[in-house]
Amino acid sequence: MKILVCISNVPDTTAKITFTDNETKLNKNGVQFIIGPYDDYALARGVELKEQFGGSLTVLHVGEADADPQIRKALAIGADDAIRINAESLDSYYTAVQIAEVAKQNSYDLILMGRESIDYNSGVVHGLVGEMLDIPSYSPVMKLDIEGSEVTITREIDGGKEILKAPLPLVLGCQEPIAEWKIPNMRGIMTARTKPLNVVEPVSMEALTAPEKYALPAPKGACKMIPASEAETLIRLLQTEAKVL
Amino acid sequence: MSVLIYAELDNGSIKKTSLETIAYGVKVAAATGDHAVVLAIGSAEKRELEKAGHYGASKVLHASEEKLKHENSLAYADTLVQAAQQEGSKVIILSKSGLGDAVAARAAAKMKAGIVSGVTALPEIGETFKVTRSIFTGKAFAVTEIKSDIKILVVRKNAIELDESSVATVQAVVEQFAPKLADEAFKATVVNVEKASSELSLTEAAVIVSGGRGMKGPEHWQPLIDFAKALGAATGCSKPVSDLDWRPHHEHIGQTGIKVAPNLYIACGISGAIQHLAGVNGSKCIVVINKDPEAPFFKAADYGIVGDVFEILPRLTEAAKTLK
Ligand SMILES: Cc1cc2nc3c(=O)[nH]c(=O)nc-3n(C[C@H](O)[C@H](O)[C@H](O)COP(=O)(O)OP(=O)(O)OC[C@H]3O[C@@H](n4cnc5c(N)ncnc54)[C@H](O)[C@@H]3O)c2cc1C
Ligand SMILES: Nc1ncnc2c1ncn2[C@@H]1O[C@H](COP(=O)(O)O)[C@@H](O)[C@H]1O
């Protein structure tokens, strides 16, 4: 089985987000970057499938060199090799074109992604890549089992879940509880240093969207505290003041 | 030309979030001088679909083939693209949901359309076409220009104020729509669909009562459920609660769970970790009940009560029962 896992490189979930350069750039100062939490699920399941069926597991990132430590971490967790497409990725379409290009040259059986990246979160890259490769895409996938060439998928739908059987190849957006996040062990960290991380240049295309500027939400007004002894007044305030009941 | 709006169906009716999206699309159409056409896929009664007119849409295309019964983003995207071609649509609008994102993405790739998901307000249309969307799980916004000829917007709940009192009684014209569907879209077979149909869906609910580890255990959930019932609310929970199996996984709200945007979110015994807030920061009004006055959730709340949930909740339930 030939597996590709696409990872994004995003600020840690607890990071405080601010912008610089006249609100046109993310301020990376003091921000810790991580593999996208959903992508981490995809990677963990990918590693398990590789252990089960053999084959190869490649990680792919579209982004700049500052992502290399996170890519090395993915190698330490169990990927065999890595590809970094050396381009800034701010637009989902552009990112998908780059991923699809690599996929076309390598015919993977399974392309695993996260349900969404948590920076410019969209949840659309898997659908775009699936369509560009003309293969099915499903998201968010909570359970993934493979027997022969048949794949059984449990995915979340509004208010419930759906179980599907589909043939390979597939593109899947993953979420918990598809697998437990994996932490690299010492041996993994050592071998990761010598695993190949191939940097390739992007295919050129004009982006269809262009970010113009960023903004932070307006600061929240003070919280109105209601003494516990008068808790009942909350209901009236919600009805007459906040008008949400 | 037209603005095309994809309206999701649930049990034969247009979803509430999709009604809001129709109203949004109608406003966009007014700004571009086009008319608004709705596409509905799946089975529904004509009368139900005519309601799109109440929100200002002139026409509904209805693709109702049996084959389209299951949520199939591949076939739905095929259908959407053909509808857009027939109607000459340059702007296509969908609601933010798993299905909405998947259909939008596949349609965008077919049409080489710029796609922006998570839109939170009406676009600014002038010489350029700009949208505002939520990024970093609600911690910030981005203003983005869409430069392609065809533009796809996936819109979040509460992107516009939906004023129910201005809803008109005009009926939309419903036309059958029969797309040509490629076999490739049906390679997967649906084995089973489990839907908690009796429960109010979290993404549609106007009010949510949610519990955290402060609720102490699954056997103590009844006061929260009673309160939710009194308010006609859906119930949710924090991640540890679903990890511990106190509550089902589909109730898990937050960064790695469901993102909700109700009018009212009531958090009971939830500390307010940033990953939890990421799932609720689209809510209009947030109430926090926590015995710790230092709980970070109070900083994100509109109303707060410092106290013991087990003492407070039954009293709130009684007070809610007197509501009309
Ligand atoms: C990558 C990542 C993703 C995550 N994603 C999510 C997510 O999607 N959703 C999520 O919820 N969490 C998520 N988390 C976990 C998050 O960091 C917190 O651990 C979690 O939200 C805490 O849940 P809690 O508030 O229920 O529990 P606690 O933090 O244990 O808080 C319990 C609260 O209850 C209060 N309390 C106790 N007893 C009472 C009482 N009798 N009456 C009133 N109040 C009481 C306490 O004062 C306390 O504030 C994520 C973490 C990581 C690292
Ligand atoms: N820059 C990137 N490089 C590689 N994979 C990415 C990148 N951005 C997004 N992805 C993948 O696509 C998934 C969905 O991303 P998005 O549509 O941006 O929410 C993510 O969970 C990743 O698996």
Compact overview of the structure:
Chain A has 245 residues and is α/β, with parallel strands linked by helices. Helix content of chain A is 27%, strand content 32%.
Ordered list of secondary-structure elements with their pairings:
The complex is a heterodimer of chains A (245) and B (324).
Chain A: E1 2-6, E2 9-11, E3 19-20, E4 25-26, E5 33-35, H1 37-53, E6 56-63, H2 68-77, E7 81-86, H3 92-106, E8 110-114, H4 125-133, E9 137-147, E10 150-157, E11 160-167, E12 170-174, H5 186-192, E13 197-200, E14 209-215, E15 224-225, H6 233-240
Parallel strand pairs in A: 1-6, 1-8, 6-7, 7-13, 8-12, 9-12
Antiparallel strand pairs in A: 2-5, 3-4, 9-10, 10-11
Helix pairs in contact in A: 2-5, 3-4
Chain B: E1 2-7, E2 9-10, E3 13-14, H1 16-32, E4 35-41, H2 46-50, E5 59-63, H3 73-87, E6 89-95, H4 98-111, E7 114-119, E8 124-125, E9 129-135, E10 140-146, E11 151-155, E12 173-176, E13 189-195, E14 207-211, H5 222-231, E15 234-237, H6 239-243, E16 264-268, H7 274-277, E17 285-290, E18 303-306, H8 309-321
Parallel strand pairs in B: 1-4, 1-6, 4-5, 5-12, 6-11, 7-11, 14-15, 14-16, 16-17, 17-18
Antiparallel strand pairs in B: 2-3, 8-9, 9-10
Helix pairs in contact in B: 3-4, 5-8
Bound molecules: flavin-adenine dinucleotide and adenosine monophosphate.
How many helices of chain A?
6
CATH superfamily label of the largest domain in chain B: HUPs
| Average pLDDT level of chain A | 94
What hetero molecules are bound to the protein chains? flavin-adenine dinucleotide, adenosine monophosphate
Strands of the largest sheet of chain A, in order across it?
11-10-9-12-8-1-6-7-13
Biggest sheet statistics of chain A: 9 strands, mixed
Proportion of residues in extended strands of chain B: 25-35%
CATH C-level class of the largest domain in chain B is Alpha Beta
Alpha carbon gap, first and last residue of chain A: 54 Å
